[in-house]
Amino acid sequence: MKKLLVLVSSCMALYSCNPQIPYQVLLNAPDAKEYIVNEIFEKKIIFISEDHITENPIFFLSENLQPFYNAGVRYLFLEGGLNTLPGQDGYQFGCFFPWVSAGGKYEWLELSEAVLNINRQLPEKDQLKVLFPEEGLEFPLVNGKTFEELGAPLPDSPDWTEYALTRRDEYASKRIVETMDAAAADEKAIIFYGSAHGQKKPVFNTSFNNSSPFTWKTLSYYLSEKYGGQFASFRYLSLFGFKYTPYSEKEWSSLADVQKIIAWDDVKKYMHKSYGELFSMYDACIVDKESVYGICYQYMPTNENLAYMFNSLKEYEGKIDILQSEENYVHFQDRGQYLMYIYYLKLYFGDSFNYRFWDTGQSLEDALDALNVAVFSQPDTVADKVLVKKDISALREYHRLMVTSNIEGFIDGSKVNFPYNIKQMKDAVAIFPEDLWSFYWLAFMETEHSKYKNAAAHWEYIISQPLAA
Fold first, then answer.
1. Can you say whether residue 112 is alpha, beta or left, with left for phi > 0 and alpha for psi between -120 and 50 degrees?
2. Cβ distance 456 to 439 under 8 Å?
3. Strand order across the beta sheet in which 129-131 lies
């Protein structure tokens, strides 16, 4: 299987907050698009944070990419080490659980289309260049050396996160510097990376995924050191919604759906001290009114996405050792992807993919051959044969309910508001009852909350479903 450099942000919950910025401050704040256009004229590189949880930053960048291009942007640096833009050559994606706060949702299609719209009528030398500065960074081998030779931690150890973060940012910064130092003086760049990478100062004594405390020198730290005042970093925040804000209904309705720029010196006044200190590492904040939650790629059953899962699963035929492997972040690597391909193809095609995981007398190869005859032999009509279809608004609400239920925190041992989460899962079940994930977490939460009668009924339902076989 192709290697995926996964963009994970379970740590990003730390940075999710709701600054209660006064109404008049928001009303009078400058327009974010116009502000950043001016910044592009004056600076060499602009960092705009990608949230990993909500998709507002993707929409903002996509909608304003043309004026940013007109202001001089000729390079767009994206996080990751592979081409994840739908419609592009080499398109591929990773399947994520719908409750995981991870970069790379289907809304990136908006950005792909914005890039294509700019480049379509331009000669190659004038086109906007989309680059992945982490390409060439290999894990677990780095420059042909093993982890033991490098003295680096193994991928299944807690300190792997430290190594991955520091190694990634140092490597990416060098690639960006090489590119921009060779660019013409009037050629500018936008970096679109996860928010934490945008902090312009080292993050001291931090720890992710139970790692030992370490100092993280971020991507923006390296670039700020190199370019000084020619580099600016902007953190994206959403107000989340009326019920979470201090505004009256009249004030809320009068706030336009236009992004605003708030200087961090102002933002800090309205945030908890610890958040204010953290966010002072950026130059300013882009504030959006509403939050839009992204859709994991496998929940968009397009011809392209379904074909990718089908063909990727075929690559695993006969590789039984995948199921015996021990993997850190199991859902991101071969075993997890293998199991999720099976699950989602069963979800979408039912009896046409009549494969039972626990039926040792059945061949996956035979089941895939039958699915190919019934569905994939006509590649242009694959999506038409999907049995379960939801509109985009329903899928976004489903993902919102899953992500905001703090399942990741619960898995990591955090305290959970069980009545709230149980309600969230019930609402998710109502939206997408065919998907067993919300049923699973509903039953799990009910069990933990001693609602045994309800939990037993839901566990029995899950076990009875063909998707669980």
1. alpha
2. no
3. 129-131, 73-78, 188-194, 45-50, 231-238, 284-288, 260-263
Q: What is the pLDDT of residue 278?
A: 56
What is the Cα Rg of the chain in Å?
A: 23
Separation of alpha carbons 79 and 64, rounded Å: 19
The three-point CA angle 307-312-314 to 5° equals 100
Alpha-carbon distance of 264 to 267, in angstroms, equals 5
Q: Is 439 helix (H, G, I), strand (E, B) or coil?
A: helix
pLDDT of 343-379, one tens digit each?
A: 999 999 999 998 987 776 778 899 999 999 999 999 9
Give tens-digit pLDDT for 131-177.
999 888 765 544 455 555 656 665 556 566 677 788 889 999 999 99
d(CA 153, CA 163): 7
CA-closest candidate to residue 217, choices 283, 274, 170: 170
Residue 196 or 68, more confident: 68
Report whether pLDDT(322) > 80.
Answer: no
Closest listed residue to residue 270, CA positions, set 11, 23, 12: 23
Q: Count helices and strands (H / E) in the chain.
A: 18, 9
One-letter amino acid for residue 29 of the chain: A
CA atoms within 13 A on the CB side of 166: 19
| 406 vs 414, residue with greater confidence | 406
**CB distance 287 to 262 below 8 Å:** yes
Residue-by-residue DSSP string for 112-125:
HHHHHHHHTTS-GG
d(C-alpha 175, C-alpha 132), whole Å: 9
3 state SS of 34 = helix
d(Cα 135, Cα 102) in Å, to the nearest integer?
19
Q: How far apart are CA 424 and CA 398, in angstroms?
A: 9
What is the percent of the chain with per-residue pLDDT over 70, rounded to a whole number?
78
Q: Quickly tell me which residue has 């994520």 as its tokens.
A: 96
This prediction has a pTM of 0.81
Q: By C-alpha distance, which of 262, 258, 268 is closest to 284?
A: 262
pLDDT given for residue 410 in this prediction: 75
Instruction: Report the alpha-carbon distance of residue 446 to residue 454 in Å, rounded.
Output: 7
Kindly report, residue by residue over 99-113, the tens digit of the pLDDT.
987 767 888 888 888
CB 349 within 8 A of CB 386: yes
Cα 287 to chain centroid, rounded: 19
Kindly write down the DSSP assignment for every residue of 293-337, as one continuous string: B---GGGS--HHHHHHHHHHHHHTTT-GGGGG---TTGGGSHHHH
